Model the fold of this input.
Amino acid sequence: MHQYLLEPRTGEPFALVLRDLPDPSPGPGEVLVKIHAASLNYRDLLVRAGRSASGGSDPVVPLSDGAGEIIALGEGVADWKIGDRVALTFFRDWISGPFQMAWHGAARGGSCDGVLSEIVTAPAHSLVAIPSTMDFAEAATLPCAALTAWHALMERGRPLTAGETVLCLGTGGVSIFALQIAKAAGAKVIVTSSSHEKLARARALGADETIHYLETPEWDREVWRLTGQRGADRVVEVGGPGTIERSLNSVAAGGVVSLIGVLTGFEPTPATLFTLVKKNASLDGIYVGNRGMFVRMIAFFEQHAIRPVIDGRFSFDDAPAAYAALEGAGHFGKIVVDL
Ligand SMILES: NC(=O)c1ccc[n+]([C@@H]2O[C@H](COP(=O)([O-])OP(=O)(O)OC[C@H]3O[C@@H](n4cnc5c(N)ncnc54)[C@H](OP(=O)(O)O)[C@@H]3O)[C@@H](O)[C@H]2O)c1
Done:
């Protein structure tokens, strides 16, 4: 089988190398998954740069997110059968319950092998069934970006309710899933972007209000105006130090800022956290989610006929071009590699 490996190089981004290996066989409690599609997340760029919180320093098979079919069962596997269509979980061993730091030791495509491989060996507990209504490419977009948005809006604290307002920053994977989930839950959604074309696409997906964050650099004031001086009940904060202050300004009294991303870098945040105190608002750190959340999310996607937005597809041989496309940030939603 063929598989990519990210190899650390001193002082440089990791190198993406294609290699040919004998097909693996599953150990006890494991299955083999023939991967049909994988998707990229901004985190995969961080892993390649050696900067992900759930990355490692050893050579690793990249990408956390993939879907395929089971082609072999190890001894003792009773929950799956050959031919089952599955997606893999981001945290291999976080099945349910609260997060434990130990789960960082097996984050796919970072601290343990990921899915950019024709065949993947996986513990049977680290898979979810995918609905017949979803193709492999769509299912491959779910494990990281979709689950993070779902966890933030529907699992942590109290679930989002109809009529609340959600602010989504930018139009990448997490933010577009947040838009789709929030609309299905009956919320109002405000989307920001650096592109008018992407804002038009967000409106076509249901966004109620849009803001061009380059033309309106004080976008927090605009959020305030658009919400009748109330603010957004939920802020999906994917920007990090360059956006956090305005995200805190944008949240409504009693609202929640979900702290998710680092699109603007890793500098110490200059934000005035006291803003949260004034508003009785909360700041929730969100790191993907567990298998139980994933199963509930898939049921919600089925119920509301949510189709992941795939903006670019690349062949397995062309996987380096998929990285380049993600880095170029011209995408809206997700980028997929077909295997
Ligand atoms: N904590 C977690 O569990 C978790 C999970 C997934 C992702 N993340 C993090 O969340 C972030 C988003 O990940 P992703 O995979 O969705 O990224 P992505 O698909 O690569 O998103 C890229 C988009 O982000 C937008 N963006 C960039 N800078 C921005 C800014 N200053 N303000 C507003 N939007 C900006 C741009 O949208 P426009 O082109 O529309 O301007 C850009 O196209 C990353 O930092 C990632 O590491 C964290």
In short: The first strand starts at residue 2 and ends at 9. Residues 142-155 form the longest helix (14 residues). The chain has a mean pLDDT of 96. The two ends are 11 Å apart (CA to CA).
